[in-house]
Specification:
Layout lengths: L2 H4 L27 H22 L7 E4 L2 E4 L9 H8 L5 E6 L4 H4 L7 E5 L2 E2 L11 H10 L7 E6 L4 E6 L2 E4 L2 E5 L7 E2 L3 E5 H6 L3 H17 L7 H21 L4 H4 L2 H6 L15 H10 L17
Helix pairs in contact: 2-7, 7-8
Bound molecules: zinc ion (ZN).
Zinc ion binds next to helix 7 and helix 8.
């Protein structure tokens, strides 16, 4: 498929369970190392994910334990980058906290980015291989998501020399997780339960309001259980509905959707060959206007999604 079509597509059947970070410094500011830029993006998505999952209420097909932690690990990086990652991020063989959502159980427990995770409920994560083929960070995130919600759990961390143990109580929220990738493209997509957003795209958003409208669109697909279709007219209606649901989710999560609406126009302008592509979505102008015109939901968390327009 030509590359210019790719940027218009936001479904993927590719399972996102394994995210590896290839070297790609294109989104990092001059003088900033790309792993640092990557972790900045992961902190922003941690905040947005936490708030959107709350805004989704009971609308997702699955729920899991939410701590507000986003993890990283050395085995997610290419062998040639690992010594640099150890140097710049201080990462060890343990999984490292890359993001802590503001207001989340992990934040209230005092966990901060850079902490290394030793054990969950006294059990070391890493030696076991319950999730073959994945990275340590993904295994730790899966173990965190599988914790009992509503009950205190103990997390043992290394910060500096001495291990510390904190207690936190995970919330039970919509089972949707944002993964930051190092793909060199401006798009976002979902496999039906996970959302992938390249760090370059996170950086392209000018505010967390814009990031929430983008991630909310993908969460809208997850909530609606949308599937791929070759019917272009139907696909556009599906995309319009994901925009509407995403706007509702972002509004319920207290993001300013009116200021974020222009994002869709700005994104479209990055696609110079868009006039040649089969248009799967409304124009950026229409998408921005739809978000701007959408009233703030009367009920939060959301309790429904719009019907597909005829
Ligand atoms: Zn979409």
């Amino acid at each position: 498929m030509p590359k210019f079509l790719n940027v218009l597509i936001c479904f993927s059947n590719v399972a996102l369970l394994v995210i590896f970070f290839g070297p790609s410094a294109l989104w990092a500011s001059p003088g900033e190392s790309w792993p640092v830029a990557l972790h900045n993006a992961m902190q922003r998505t941690a905040d947005v994910e936490w708030r959107l999952r709350q805004a989704a209420g009971n609308m997702c097909s699955g729920t899991d334990a939410a701590t507000g932690l986003v993890m990283d690990s050395l085995d997610a990086y290419g062998a040639g980058d690992r010594s640099m990652v150890v140097e710049t991020l201080g990462m060890s063989d343990l999984a490292q906290v890359a993001g802590v959502a503001k207001g989340s159980p992990a934040a209230r427990a005092g966990i901060v980015p850079g902490d290394a995770l030793i054990a969950i409920q006294g059990r070391n994560i890493g030696s076991e291989d319950n999730y073959p083929g994945t990275t340590l960070a993904v295994r730790v995130q899966a173990a965190l998501a599988a914790l009992p919600a509503g009950q205190p759990v103990s997390i043992t961390l290394r910060r500096g020399a001495a291990p510390i143990t904190v207690s936190l109580t995970p919330a039970r929220l919509c089972a949707a997780h944002i993964f930051v990738t190092t793909e060199n493209r401006l798009n976002a997509y979902t496999d039906g339960s996970n959302i992938a957003i390249p760090a370059r795209m996170v950086d392209f958003t000018r505010s967390d309001d814009e990031l929430a409208v983008l991630a909310g669109h993908e969460l809208g697909h997850i909530i609606a259980r949308d599937e791929q279709t070759s019917n272009i007219a139907k696909r556009r209606r599906i995309e319009d509905r994901a925009d509407a649901t995403g706007s509702d989710l972002a509004s319920c999560a207290s993001y300013d959707t009116r200021s974020a609406a222009a994002f869709w126009r700005r994104l479209e302008k990055t696609q110079p060959l868009r006039f040649l592509a089969i248009r799967m979505q409304s124009t950026g102008k229409v998408r921005a206007q739809n978000v701007r015109d959408r009233p703030i939901p009367t009920q939060c968390p959301i309790t429904g999604i719009p019907a597909l327009r005829k």
